[in-house]
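Hey team,

Filing this mostly as a record. A colleague (T.K.) asked me to run one chain through the structure pipeline before their review meeting, and I want the input and output archived in the tracker in case anyone asks later how it was produced. No errors, nothing strange. Just documentation.

Input sequence:
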Amino acid sequence: MTPRGTFVDIRLSHLLRDCSVGAIVRHDQTLMVVRDTRHWDGPRTSPYDREIRYVELVRRALELGDMRLCRPPVKKQQGDRIEDWVPARRFPRWTRCNLCGLLHHEPWKRQDGGDPEGAGERRTTASPRTLRCRRTGESKRGRSRCDGRLEQVPWVLVHEDGYLADVPWHHIAHHNARHPRSDGCRPDRKTAYLKVQNRQGRWRVLCSRCGTDTRLPDRFPYGEHTRQQPWVSEPPPEPPSQPGLLIGVNDVRVHFAECRTALVIPPESRIRRGSVVDRLYSSSADQELIRTALNSYAMQSRYRTLATKYRTTPEAVEKAFAKIERGELVQHLPPGDLEQLEYAALTQPIPDLRSDEDFVTEHHTEAWRDLADSRAGLSAGVAAAVEKVVAVHRLKEIMVFTGFRRGQAEPGRGRSPTPPDIVGESDWLPALELWGEGLFFALKEELLAGWEAQSSALARAAKAAMRAEAVHLPRAVSRALSPRFLFCHTLAHLVVRRLEAEAGYPAASLKERIYCASGVDGDEAMAGVLVYVAVADAHGSLGGLMDMARPDRFLPLLTGAVEDASWCSFDPVCGEQEGHGPDLLNSAACHACALVPEPSCICGNRLLDRVFVAGDGEGLRSLWDLAARSSGQ
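Output structure:
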């Protein structure tokens, strides 16, 4: 296995998140680091061959400018050669003997008998990749050989500017050393002379040549002796003023992936693959051929030329070009308006819907109203508060990897993420098409507006907003906090937990999208929740989730979720404590009642409070009580 020719096999669902560019992954019992996107394609391949089309709304809503969205390379076997796979290199490059603690630099490059004081690669039948320490020395019984197993060191050096490097062991061992022989001791990666040993719970770095002994620090300067990335030989352009962090390879601070998602909705979700519109939209050269026609006669001639190419009629080509020019395939919207469009696509029936489109919905609102008339008690209030229930038979989500962070850097705190190509010169971003299904429900606006106007709801939301002022919130919830959002977000979590029990879906596979707006500043009021599953598979899931949107199944599900909000096994501690959980942004919410796996939550399990759903029995009345009263139940 050579560093230059090494590739890793990573699931597509992980490639843009935990195993994206700059992440340390385990492959074939070896730790590897994924290289940047400049190394993802060879001389015979191009990322533009994998471009995702019909995502103009997504690109504009996510403020990606002219960046193209391209799928990652996938494994292709060409004889004995592997093409189009994600490249990586072995990292850390230092190994440590599990018996004597001796450090060896890239011992897999050495051959048996190469360095009597170093390490060689000894292949055994039981473990063909086992590396052994071949350090020899004197003992009471004569000369002996260690023969311990070499394992990659578990420490790396990271910096908040996005840098990652091997720990500079020699410089740490001789940093501020007072030993008289330390001044003349020079780094030598071909010889094993440094040791890392644990003494009384403290890791120490020792030099066997000059006798220095230094405690392994928590921070160390990130200077000229360290690379900016493991696969880049050059040091940082400017040495950082702040020292780097020495942390374990499994520490969450080694790598934070930044991903953004959006749904593909009409009109782009309605384009048939292989149609005339599809082929013409996909070819900017053919569009330019029509646009550059000098007169109508030349244009008709070019329609005929393209009709022959597409095996259709000139009239079909003319109609397809007219659709593209009118912007029917791409709506010219300012950035950030996709959320309103998604909400409209979910709440309004789509005319002439085909089952092969990328966004297919089925509305159960009429059946929901008929079912609500025959209910009493809590279920009556729940039924009266819900305005729309929609089964999403098919959806496509676009996940875009925009960069990564390291150390303790957080979004919005002065440091930009490191781009996927680490130099910021690429005109494309890695992206995935995720296919799936879901269920959606929207609440009655007039009821919700009256509920959130309660003084106790506003006061409780104001306390959450004060705690959130000093914490950067995810982009999806950068809007001002309101009782409406805290209510919808907590209710979404309770529904996800119920679905795990009743629909058989693990909570980690489910996702939430919260549509929330109060209707001020000219925006349309929104109050809806979409719970869905999306995977990197064109077939999506098996239909169990959208089946839960049937009114006879969804009403017991939602009623049970509301009942779950009224109690927790950790009450009264959970219900009375304010400011706990991640960043102290939760009130009445814990792992026993409202938290879900973090990949499912748009806020990282923050901004949750069961009291908004269940009421507090005093000043804050629940939405369901108000709905039951308004319906006369």
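Quick notes for T.K.: Residues 483-502 form the longest helix (20 residues). The radius of gyration is 30 Å.
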